[in-house]
Design brief:
Layout (H helix, E strand, L loop, with lengths): L18 H22 L4 E4 L2 E4 L1 H14 L3 E3 L1 H22 L11 H11 L4 E3 L3 E2 H25 L45 H19 L2 H13 L3 H43 L1 H10 L9 H6 L1 H12 L3 H4 L19 H9 L1 H12 L5 H16 L7 H13 L2 E2 L4
Parallel strand pairs: 5-6
Antiparallel strand pairs: 1-2, 3-4
Helix pairs in contact: 1-2, 1-5, 1-16, 3-14, 5-6, 5-7, 6-7, 6-8, 6-15, 7-8, 8-9, 8-15, 11-13, 13-14, 15-16
């Protein structure tokens, strides 16, 4: 019979993991989960009320709630007050219109209001403990690199006869969130289509994501291959909105960062000019189309004119017809259902000002603008805010809400030692 093992009486060695390190790892898991959902699941939906809603919304809210309960996230007091002010503006508008006062041009949507307020509620969150900004942005740009490579492969595959720009027909319609988005847009040369990053809903979204990735890489990591991949993705989207984000950085970086910002802005311009020059030599027809995109803003009927000019026409006409709308709005979901003598679009600030009033818009903007940021994060903040507020109607599109808020408001970062 084997002898029983002898106990030596020496205590076992226990390695204690610092609480801050555990918290930091949890924050990175949270960030990776939110970014993966926002980037990879944009086109997927859930049936709800006879239509499809974005899958990213409920999944993202569940993830945020779980990490808030675990203590990885906390509530930011100032942004809680701003959120309550936003809710108050919306409720006062409902009461005002219910009393038969103000705008009477149409019925507001309670579902639209609920969705808007629930999705916006994540702006109240912040990391309970700061995380190293280099680790955070490295994790973010790993996801962006995947999107860049997918977009480049998608565009290149057209030359061998493979065209995969939409999931419609490949997956059940009930599982998709593609309706209403421009997934397949011709470049204008032959039968080539603009890249949409394969996972994203439109080429414009792809260009905006690549612009943010390029800025992050330049500010935090500066890896040449990553910079080239993000710049190539920006070019292959053939969309002017990503260039607006880049232009915002180029203009504001020298003002906020001094000489270093000027140097970084110069690097961005030089990189993009070099790639554009190479593309002009290899594919001059494609570059001619790209140049034509820059002239759209002044041309009625084009996407640029609809996106950046007609919203302000609409705002002026509505506020002239009903001055009280400037204070309490015309009701949630009503901005897209107006009958006007011209075709129009609404961007995020115009939609919120029209539907909830200017005071609500101020509170909403401050939810994005008011946060504790590192110098690197501050350099990213204005391009990200311009992206969210002026390059699309993203106020109820969960992937862009979660992504932008995570990068510039929710993320509480510790400066990297350089």
């Amino acid at each position: 019979m084997a002898a029983a093992p002898q106990l030596t009486g020496q205590p076992a060695t226990v390695i204690a993991v610092p609480k801050a390190r555990v918290q930091s790892e949890q924050v990175l898991y949270l960030s990776a989960a939110i970014m993966a959902m926002s980037m990879l699941l944009q086109r997927f939906g859930l049936p709800f009320g006879g239509q499809s809603i974005s899958l990213v919304g409920p999944l993202g809210l569940l993830v945020f709630a779980a990490f808030l309960l675990r203590g990885t996230l906390a509530l930011d007091r100032k942004r809680v007050i701003l959120y309550l002010a936003l809710v108050t503006c919306a409720v006062l508008g409902i009461a005002w219109r219910a009393a038969g006062l103000g705008w009477t041009g149409g019925e507001a949507s309670s579902n639209s209001l609920l969705q808007f307020l629930v999705l916006t509620s994540v702006a109240m969150l912040t990391f309970a403990e700061p995380v190293d900004e280099t680790r955070f942005f490295r994790a973010i740009n790993q996801l962006f690199l995947l999107i860049a490579l997918a977009g480049m492969l998608q565009f290149a595959a057209q030359f061998v006869g493979v065209r995969l720009f939409s999931f419609t027909g490949l997956l059940p319609d009930a599982a998709l969130f593609e309706q209403g988005y421009h997934l397949e847009i011709p470049v204008g040369v032959g039968d080539l289509l603009k890249s949409n990053g394969f996972f994203l809903v439109e080429p414009s979204v792809f260009s905006q994501v690549m612009a943010l990735a390029l800025i992050i890489e330049l500010l935090a990591l500066r890896r040449p291959l990553y910079l080239a991949a993000f710049a190539a993705g920006l070019l292959l989207a053939f969309s002017g909105t990503g260039w607006i984000v880049i232009a915002t950085f180029v203009i504001t970086a020298p003002l906020g960062m001094g000489r270093r910002g000027l140097m970084l802005a110069a690097v961005v311009v030089a990189l993009l000019l070099a790639l554009a020059g190479l593309a002009a030599v290899l594919a001059p027809d494609v570059m001619a189309v790209f140049q034509a995109r820059l002239d759209e803003i002044s041309t009625p009927g084009t996407s640029g004119h609809l996106r950046f000019i007609t919203p302000f026409w609409l705002l002026g006409d509505v506020f002239t017809a009903s001055p009280s709308a400037a204070l309490i709005g015309i009701g949630s979901g009503a901005a897209e259902r107006l009958t006007m003598p011209y075709e129009y679009n609404v961007n995020t600030p115009i939609k919120i000002a029209l539907e909830y009033g200017v005071p609500a818009l101020v509170a909403y903007v401050l939810l994005f603008a008011m946060a504790r940021r590192t110098a690197l994060q501050s350099a990213l903040a204005l391009p990200a805010i311009v992206l969210f507020f002026f390059t699309g109607g993203y106020q109820q599109f969960p992937p862009m809400i979660f992504m932008v808020l995570l990068l510039i408001s929710i993320a509480r970062l510790a400066p990297a030692h350089r």
